[in-house]
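Minimal example, chain plus S-adenosyl-L-homocysteine.
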Amino acid sequence: MKQYQDLQSMSLADIEQVMLQLGEKSYRAKQIFQWLHKHCIDHIDKMNNIPKHTRKQLIEIAPWCKIQLLKKYKSQKDDTIKYLFTLSDHNIIECVFMKYRHGNTVCISSQVGCRMGCHFCASTLEGLVRHLTPGEMLSQVYEIQKDVGERISNIVIMGSGEPLDNMMSATTFIDTITSPIGLNISQRNITLSTCGLVQQIYQLAKLQYQITLAISLHAPNDDIRKQIMPIAYKYSFEELIKACTYYIQHTKRRITFEYALIEGLNDQVRHAKELSQKLKELLCHVNLIPINEIEERSYESTSLSHAKQFQSILQRNGIPTTIRRKLGEDIEAACGQLRRGYLSQQE
Ligand code: SAH
């Protein structure tokens, strides 16, 4: 019989197929799916309406997805909590819980490490270790929901890793977490952030999810983008914008462009003007991010007054632009900082 990565990674159709092969009733699949993804149980023996022998057969085909809380850091300044989890192969991942007015939000990782190599990002400094399974992505949400004891309503796939470099897990994650018989989180409350893998943006568009696609743009042209994001050598600015246009046409969804302001590099008036010209025809929103300074790199953050000037230029050109509030600054709640900090302490 076919083996699966882990039980939590199986779709409802996968479980139905297995039930069929085991000679079980097909309604069992729904019951099992609900135990895993609605009740978020932590052990297979809690499935008390599933026959023992079926549970035993199931766990032989698909091991339980184990992620274990390793450490938890609570911000003193706001309600942000940062988590480190250990995976079954002892790799460590990080995720963040944030309380916003619009709901409880979890920021999850999609890979251990990352191979995209963005110069300002701590997640990628040691490259990609491995993809996360859909089950490992889901378990981050389930574990945090259990820990805070409140319903999670929003998800951002914006932690370590490039989700579109792990497309299978990302899409299975979205399908499962939005399932009406699972946590039933609205697609509109999910944001997926990518550094701009053009081919995968086309694939995602065809799936017509109602999620928010966020593009880490960080530059108004190829020249600057290449200085900070190696992916810009693979796909030009123009190709990326073309893919975004296609995405908007196909999904009718507004795209968010993330733009981390780095002093002297991409934060000048001329950059704001150039960016405005390139984006003004698009159904989009720009999110300006004060860059989090990481120890390993010398990039400095732009001042708030300068960020506001940058914002006003975009706004004058009709582009809705916000400046992202910093949360959890005192607990290194940014992109791979925490895992890295933890790992280097252990050395
Ligand atoms: N790989 C995906 C998602 C993970 S990174 C992506 O590139 O979008 C999530 C976001 O944090 C991206 O916009 C990324 O560019 C940004 N980011 C990474 N390091 C940062 C830092 N030091 N300061 C501010 N933003 C950072």
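The chain has a mean pLDDT of 94. The first strand starts at residue 67 and ends at 74.
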